[in-house]
Amino acid sequence: MLTQSVIYKYIDDNIERKTLLEISEELMINNDVEMDDIYYVWLVYKFRNNEKLGRMLEEHDLSIVERRKDENFRKNIREIYNNQCLITGVDIEECQIAHIKAFKDCEEGEKYDILNGWILSANLHQCFDRYMFSVNDEKRIVVHPNYVNKRNTISKYDGLLVDNLKDDSMKYMSIHYKIFCEKGNIKKD
């Protein structure tokens, strides 16, 4: 992938004798670059001395970076866990990629750490985020006492061993489990 500075230099070297379209086509043909990326860099290049527009483009650039990190995070989690829920085994079509440690509580390096993610069916993801259950240090599901022996999805998984959860992910799970115990007034195992 071309860097912004390489594209700037290419534009500088060719701007006097070629149109934006010609330059863009050459960059796309000779490199693995999308038209949107070239157009964006062209805008940044053209308006780099405009302070207000420069700030707007910089913010847009940051959101693109975040979106790409998120896409990579989700892709890697799907590969690691074979596109299925770690608890129910259902396929990815009925699942969501879930952060183990809540995204809002993550430090910068934790947000897209593949060890901080797993695949859960949509309803279990919602239950997990609401601390209706967690996973203890022995990798067993612990359901909050208010939801055990009730007519709900999570109750039947109480005590289930989640042995396919990566060992290195337990550092994040222990944080979730600690909060789960605190919120539910549960003694930690």
Features:
about 190 residues, mainly alpha, 2 domains, two-stranded antiparallel ribbon, two-stranded antiparallel sheet
Task: Tell me what you see in this structure.
This protein is mainly alpha-helical and 189 residues long. 46% of the residues lie in helices and 8% in strands. It has six helices and four strands; from the N terminus they run ααααββαββα. A hairpin with a 5-residue loop joins β3 and β4. The longest helix is centred in the middle third of the chain and has 30 residues. The protein is elongated, with a radius of gyration of 23 Å.
**Rg over C-alpha atoms, rounded to the nearest angstrom:** 23 Å
Give unreliable regions as ranges.
none
- The total domain count is 2
Helix-strand pattern: HHHHEEHEEH
Query: Approximately what portion of the residues adopt beta-strand conformation?
Result: 5-15%
Distance between the termini: 49 Å
Strand order of the largest sheet: 1-2
What characteristic shape results from the CA principal axes? elongated
Helical coverage, percent range: 40-55%
Number of helices: 6
Q: What is the count of β-strands?
A: 4
Question: What is the mean pLDDT?
Answer: 82
Major sheet characteristics:
2 strands, antiparallel
Based on secondary structure, the structural category is mainly alpha
Helix-strand layout with pairing:
Blueprint: H1 4-14, H2 20-30, H3 35-46, H4 51-80, E1 95-99, E2 117-121, H5 122-129, E3 133-135, E4 141-143, H6 170-184
Antiparallel strand pairs: 1-2, 3-4
